[in-house]
Design goal:
The protein is of the alpha/beta class and about 350 residues long. It has ten helices and twelve strands. The strands form three sheets. Strands 2-8-7-6-5-3-4 form a seven-stranded mixed β-sheet, with helices on both faces. β5, α5 and β6 form a beta-alpha-beta unit. The N and C termini lie far apart (about 50 Å).
Length: about 350
């Protein structure tokens, strides 16, 4: 007998990237940073460990103030969350469960569909163009809420700043959420538009560009009214959502701008080298503004390439869906690992060409 509420019986859960422990892998499947957290982040964490017997301030005021200062907004425009996924959940359950349809691309972050189904939201998955870009005209017809990952995942393609503003202008009574998990690797944040548009919420994370995937810290920035409403939902679900140790690490990561800039530059340079190597080997690679590349080859299927690389100790991501089945997504790791992977892929393609 199942005790599950029938409301959730149809929900297909999000499938996270593999986290295997059967052997040592070069792990390039979940867009984690290949670099350790900054020394400042670790130092701040150590200072908080001794206080772990005490609840943290659920407002996370020190981090909220740091985020606000970094992005030149008011502290009351910031909510700190347990990764950006929690920020998204608060938005979905708090703002998207009304009468309006929710729009998002048919190829994007898989959690949007999961959350929409879980929360009982009416939604429409809007097809991307043939070149995997978003057609902004599909999102400017009014009377619909919108969520867009910018840059998009898993394609890695970034929208122009002006295109974001077109969506915001189209219907100021509908909400536009911009998920900027990867914006630091090549995009332009929409945060500076907040002064002109109350219908904008920007969501970011410390998981990717600030080396804190395991700490689970994210945030949303919007109007003070929107943030108050998000906190109403948060305090109804999970007030103590971010540990004091994680909060301290995030503060350190935000303060250590020199380390942040250096790690971002490393990723960008390695991404350029790796993309060039793949293209020389005959791969189609979408131009990426993220810490991953999305690629396919005419002579070898995505699933087969994924399996062959896994056997050789490289974990990449394959999405077993009709639209994405020929592709693999590869996170950008350290330069030496990516060059080793490039050589391995070139060998596999050469073997495939002889079959």
């Amino acid at each position: 007998m199942s005790f599950l509420n029938n409301r959730y019986s149809h929900v297909k859960p999000y499938v996270p990237g593999e986290q295997p422990d059967d052997r040592e892998y070069i792990k390039l499947n979940t867009n984690e940073s290949p670099y350790e957290p900054s020394e400042m982040a670790r130092k701040y964490a150590e200072e908080e460990i001794a206080k772990s017997r005490l609840y943290q301030d659920p407002e996370n005021p020190l981090l909220a103030e740091k985020v606000a200062g970094y992005y030149h907004v008011n502290k009351n425009q910031v909510i700190i969350t347990n990764g950006s996924d929690e920020a998204l959940y608060l938005i979905f359950t708090g703002f998207f469960t009304g009468e309006k349809t929710l729009l998002f691309p048919n190829i994007t972050y898989g959690f949007y569909k999961v959350y929409a189904d879980f929360c009982g939201i009416r939604y429409h998955e809007v097809p991307l163009r043939d070149d995997f870009t978003v057609n902004i005209g599909d999102y400017t017809k009014g009377n619909a809420n919108v969520i867009i990952a910018n840059p998009n995942a898993p394609t890695g393609i970034c929208l122009e700043f002006s295109e974001i503003e077109k969506m915001l202008k189209a219907d100021k009574n509908s909400l536009v959420v911009i998920d900027e998990a990867y914006v630091d690797f090549g995009g332009t944040s929409s945060i500076e538009l907040l002064g002109d548009y109350d219908n904008l919420i920007v969501v970011q994370t410390f998981s990717k560009s600030r080396q804190l995937a395991g700490a689970r810290v994210g945030f949303a920035i919007s109007s003070e009214k929107n943030i108050r409403d998000l906190k109403r939902i948060k305090y109804s679900i999970n007030p103590y959502n971010v540990s004091r140790v994680s909060e301290a690490m995030a503060r350190g990561a935000l303060e250590d701008k020199e380390y942040f800039d250096k790690m971002i530059q490393n990723i960008k340079e390695t991404r350029t080298l790796f993309t060039s190597s793949l293209r020389k080997t005959g791969f189609f690679v979408l131009d990426s503004s993220t810490n991953f590349v999305f690629t396919r080859h005419a002579d070898i299927k995505g699933k087969a390439l994924y399996a062959l690389l896994r056997d050789r100790g490289f974990l990449v991501r394959h999405f077993d869906t009709e639209l994405l089945i020929d592709f693999i997504r590869i996170s950008i790791g350290k330069r030496e690992d990516m060059m080793q992977l490039a050589d391995e892929i070139a060998g596999i393609v050469k073997e495939a060409g002889r079959i």
